[in-house]
Amino acid sequence: MTTSHESTLQQHEQEIDFLPAHYREHTAKKKGRAWRLTTIVLIAMMLPVASFYQLRVRAKLQRELDTLRPQCVTVDAYRAQLQTLDKKRLSLESKARLIAYLHHPWPRSQILSALLPTLPQSVALTSIQIEEMAGTAIAAAPIAKNPHQEVQVQAAEVLPADADLKYLRDRHDPAQVVVLLSGVTTDQSQLHEYLGKLARNRLFVKTELLSLESPSSKQAAGKNTEGDQFRARLIVCQGPGQPDGPKSKGDKDGSIAGANRTTVVAGRVP
Question: Whose CB has fewer CB within 10 Å in the chain, the N or C terminal residue?
């Protein structure tokens, strides 16, 4: 009991505060000033450390910049060289397209070499006409365009070779090379077989027998040596660089691809 009574008295003594209020306020302000002073001292101590760290980081970055600066100069030089080579490439590609297109009229000797070796003895040719006729070109599938190349053409000036190529395309693409054959035959079956062989030749896209006339009774009197007169028309496929001409890929053996071949014999499509 005595112990509990003493503890109660001590608690009451602690609860009773005999100090005036202004003394407590002065003590609180004094503690606040001490904390502020401590904070200022800590900040003042941290500033040199932070400045020293920033100086080290700046020195490190400067060393890296000094190391990268020659590399940047080299990259700029390579970039300028790449732009020069790219312009040269575009110019060479333009000239290559023009040169390829200039080969599009098939040599007449190549056309004759396709006509004469398979000519049977019963068929005699009296005339061979090779000419370019406007408005007879067979409609070709649209050419796939390269968007990147279109942007380059629009952004840059038109190269002289491209301008010449456009002029030649506008002039020759709508036209078609036509071979007109005239002659006589003593065997119509061999004539049809001959035209069939020409139709299977990949140089021609269309073979057509225009007319087949027997000699008149006056001409047939006596010994018949002339035979039946005929006229045929062959349409030559488009050449290199043209929309339906041979492609650079898939023609390793020099064959001609991309043409639809039609054979018309005496008005009939077989």
Answer: N
